[in-house]
């Protein structure tokens, strides 16, 4: 019943798309936009004399600039693979992919290219697929011409007329499901002269995922159609999985380098408020087009849209890439890292940040200034029960957002405190982490984490209380932490 309703809606949507497509073609030929009209005509007139095979790259990498070549006949050879991958630690998902990755392989073209596109549907796949490239001027963005069953291949071609950064995606019914399973990627059409040179270029795409189990529920998770229709995402991630851009997948740059991010949003549902904690975008190609905005904090990337974001990294430290709809970042996976190495630039940034790490965003990760007077007051040691009381409150207001309600942490991002060997093995070390923060690789219960915890700036009484609470909860070893123990570590 519901299925047939969706099907009829999809049909309606498909015919609507055709109408809209027709209307916009009409308004263009009507000369509504003189400038782009002349450019289009020019692009059409570009003669192609050579031929080359396109270099396709997996995220987060992009092929090299087209600035040094003329428009050409560009042969794109892309294989669709349905395969099981890891959505998060211990969570598996069957992804449908363009080229074996989510997002799919990056295609770099330039204005005037004649793209000859061959789409191959691997014989082990179970479903037919196709591709709708938003860079195409033509019905369905190529979808109807590229419909291909498992074990078959199909070739179609188009000429790139409009420079910009475009999303491509599968458009086989149910369209939403094909996109929700990872069938999207980016195609760049560079202007004739190419984009200005930069030091680093990366490819990032956000996507929302809908699973039968809740976030983090272990095992192979099936797609949940009802949650997708309700837009109730379990995962919102960069590059296809929780941790797609952290740990060994984090991006890197050096102080002084210019960075260009090609950022897309596959959706299927959610709009991204793309933000980099600790940087300001010097330039944004709004929606991937010609309009340039400067000095931008957060740029909106629609589902099925993109943006080109450029900035110079000024100081060393960890930049944090997020969807600033912030629960998605800290609770659903939309969090990535860029590690910037190089010399400190105290004139640009000289905050009281340990090890040059800059995470100034949000109440939970912001270091609160210490109340000096309060810290110096002579205090009477609290009883264990009082420590548990105060500790529970402090845990709920400070540690909770990252280490979670029952100390279970978040796979690939925040280590567990519940039954944590790292915690239980060494009290002084744990106290020191709360006092001074922690970065770099650590192993907790056999899983490695390479992330950042900022110093918590609690006074001795508070640290004693919160650590006593942690040690006496969730199966930990029952240590009672005294203010003296905290003082010793603080004065070390
Ligand atoms: C902003 C997120 C965040 C907050 C808030 C936070 N932590 Fe952490 N914590 C981390 C991260 C990330 C690590 C791992 C650091 C690394 O990879 O080097 C960590 C590591 C730890 C560890 C060592 C590893 C383990 O699992 O035993 C302890 C102990 C710890 N935190 C305790 C606390 C306590 C207690 C609080 C509250 C007073 C707290 N943390 C608040 C993010 C946070
Ligand atoms: Cu598909």
From TrEMBL:
Q: How does it assemble?
A: Homotrimer.
Query: Mind telling me which Pfam families this protein's record contains?
Result: Cu-oxidase_3 (PF07732), Cytochrom_C (PF00034)
Q: Which UniProt keywords apply?
A: Copper, Heme, Iron, Metal-binding, Oxidoreductase, Repeat
> Do you know which InterPro entries this protein is assigned to?
Cu-oxidase-like_N, Cupredoxin, Cyt_c-like_dom, Cyt_c-like_dom_sf, Cytochrome_c-type_DH, NO2-reductase_Cu
Q: What is this protein called?
A: Copper-containing nitrite reductase
Write the Enzyme Commission number(s) for this entry: 1.7.2.1
Question: Which cofactors, if any, are listed as required?
Answer: Cu(+); Cu(2+)
Residues at which Cu cation binds: 129, 134, 169-170, 178, 183, 324
Query: Would you identify the family this protein belongs to, as annotated?
Result: Belongs to the multicopper oxidase family.
Please list the GO terms describing molecular function.
copper ion binding; electron transfer activity; heme binding; nitrite reductase (NO-forming) activity
Domain Cytochrome c, chain residue ranges per copy: 386-474
**Gene source species:** Brumimicrobium oceani
EC class, as a word, reads oxidoreductase
Q: Which reaction does it catalyse?
A: nitric oxide + Fe(III)-[cytochrome c] + H2O = Fe(II)-[cytochrome c] + nitrite + 2 H(+)
TM helices/strands, residue ranges:
none
């Amino acid at each position: 019943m519901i299925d047939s309703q969706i099907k009829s809606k999809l049909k309606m949507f498909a015919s609507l798309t055709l109408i809209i497509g027709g209307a916009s073609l009409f308004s263009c030929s009507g000369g509504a936009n003189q400038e782009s009209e002349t450019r289009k005509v020019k692009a059409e007139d570009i003669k192609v004399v050579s031929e080359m095979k396109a270099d396709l790259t997996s995220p987060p990498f992009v092929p090299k600039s087209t600035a040094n070549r003329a428009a050409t006949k560009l042969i794109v050879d892309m294989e669709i693979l349905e395969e099981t991958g890891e959505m998060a630690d211990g969570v598996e998902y069957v992804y449908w992919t363009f080229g074996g990755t989510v997002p799919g392989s990056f295609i770099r073209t330039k204005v005037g290219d004649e793209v000859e596109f061959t789409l191959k549907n691997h014989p082990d796949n179970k479903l037919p697929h196709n591709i709708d490239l938003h860079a195409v001027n033509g019905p369905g963005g190529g979808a109807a011409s590229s419909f291909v069953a498992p074990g078959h291949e199909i070739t179609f071609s188009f000429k790139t007329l409009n420079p910009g950064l475009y999303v491509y995606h599968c458009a086989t019914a149910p369209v939403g499901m094909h996109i929700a399973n990872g069938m999207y990627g980016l195609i760049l059409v560079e202007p004739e002269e190419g984009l200005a040179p930069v030091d680093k270029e990366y490819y990032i795409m956000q996507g929302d995922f809908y699973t039968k189990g809740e976030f983090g529920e272990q095992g192979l998770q099936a797609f949940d159609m009802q949650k997708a229709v309700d837009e109730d995402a379990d995962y919102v991630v960069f590059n296809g999985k929780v941790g797609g851009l952290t740990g060994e997948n984090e991006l890197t740059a050096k102080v002084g380098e210019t960075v260009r991010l090609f950022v897309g949003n596959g959706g299927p549902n959610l709009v991204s408020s793309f933000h980099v904690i600790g940087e300001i975008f010097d330039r944004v190609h709004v929606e991937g087009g010609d309009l340039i905005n400067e000095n931008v904090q957060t740029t909106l990337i629609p589902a099925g849209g993109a943006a080109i974001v450029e900035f110079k990294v000024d100081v060393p430290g960890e930049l944090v890439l997020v969807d600033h709809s912030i629960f998605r970042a800290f609770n659903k996976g939309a969090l990535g890292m860029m590690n910037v190495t190089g010399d400190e630039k105290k004139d640009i940034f000289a905050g009281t940040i340990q090890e040059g790490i800059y995470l100034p965003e949000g109440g939970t990760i912001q270091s609160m200034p210490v109340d000096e007077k309060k810290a110096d007051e002579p205090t009477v040691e609290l009883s264990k029960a009082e420590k548990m009381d105060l500790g529970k409150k402090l845990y709920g207001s400070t540690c909770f957002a990252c280490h979670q309600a029952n100390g279970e942490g978040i796979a690939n991002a925040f280590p567990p405190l519940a039954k944590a060997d790292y915690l239980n093995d060494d009290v002084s070390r744990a106290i020191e982490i709360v006092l001074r923060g922690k970065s770099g690789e650590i192993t907790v219960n056999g899983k490695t984490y390479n992330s950042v915890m900022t110093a918590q700036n609690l006074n001795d009484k508070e640290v004693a209380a919160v650590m006593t609470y942690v040690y006496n909860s969730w199966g930990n070893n029952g240590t009672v932490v005294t203010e003296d123990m905290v003082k010793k570590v603080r004065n070390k």
